[in-house]
Amino acid sequence: MTDNNHRPVARIAGTGHASGTRVLTNFDLERMVDTSDEWITARTGIKERHLVENGTVTSDLCSDAAKQALADAGLSAENLDYIIVGTVTGDMKFPSTASILQSKLGAYNASTFDISAACSGFIYGLDIADSLIRSGRAETILVIGAEVLSSMTNYQDRKTCVLFGDGAGAAVVTRSDDDRGILSTHTGSNGDLAHLLYCDGGGSLKPAMNRDLPFEDFTLRMNGNEVFKHAVRIMDHAALTALEKAGISPSDVDMFIPHQANIRIIDAMAKRLSFSRDRIMINIDRYGNTSTASIPTALNEARLAGRVREGDVVLVAAFGGGFTWASAVFRM
Ligand code: ACO
Hints:
Number of strands: 14
Distance between the termini: 25 Å
Strand content: 25-35%
Strand order of the largest sheet: 1-9-14-13-12
Structural class: alpha+beta
Number of helices: 10
Shape: globular
Radius of gyration: 19 Å
Order of helices and strands: EEEHHEHEHEHEHEEEEHEHHHEE
CATH architecture of the largest domain: 3-Layer(aba) Sandwich
Helix content: 25-40%
CATH class of the largest domain: Alpha Beta
Bound molecules: acetyl coenzyme *A
């Protein structure tokens, strides 16, 4: 676990997002598996998700989101000291998606690496970016959460295929010279829960070259019920820890942006932390669960809609496979 509690040194200076262009609605899914719009809406809050067209890869979504974030920050790709991409569905096993993105952007002054922390990857990246800027090792860092989850979703498994979408969200993090910036970050994990949410095919455990492996081994598998129970508890803990580290209470937060995994998890948290709907960003109905892309996508949409403005205090919290969890408080 890492924690910090400090005055802002690094701030989010620009944001962007990209999503798949193919919309898959609940009614489309009714024709694919034994499910219904009614069940999906009631149990998850999802109405549709955006998937990529064949041939579009994770780094393409990253590139679109990154260009928007750089333009928003008034910076160019040459300004980047690091590119950090949180993803579990990178373009290939190696090199990293961050390296491929570097070439697409022409960001040749940057060091590059990916983070594998599932849905918490973007906030893990934010935490690392804050530390690098705080230590004086970097001035400007591109942090991205991106997934093409359709590449490891089993569209014959109704328990998972109704949940996920493809997308990327980006933030340019740079040195702050005023009171705007990252006020606290918190990260943690519990590997004992790894068996609840995983894809075990394609690594050294079950190499892709073993042709006897069933197709399901290369798809995401999840014990949804168990994940749900842990998620509610972990998200609460993560959010409260970040607030405590920042020295503020839920009432000081202008906008809460939770990981968009399930509307029931979001509602349960909102109730316990006393957040009314007008102080919570929700877009799960349109995107489904885009894993690590969900929070930066929602942040960018909130800014574009004027729901998060300059000077607003934002709380973000996520959990995901690993289990991992992460949270942060920042002033835009
Ligand atoms: N349509 C219709 N029925 C369904 C569907 C579906 N799409 N999926 C499951 N069911 C059925 C089940 O088969 C079961 O039927 P049964 O009682 O006859 O066996 C019944 O609905 C209840 O199933 P549960 O799994 O108990 O349903 P639950 O209410 O828990 O909802 C869900 C399932 C939506 C997956 C929920 O558990 C959830 O959201 N879990 C958290 C998932 C999550 O947050 N993942 C985040 C991490 S993802 C990442 O890291 C990439």
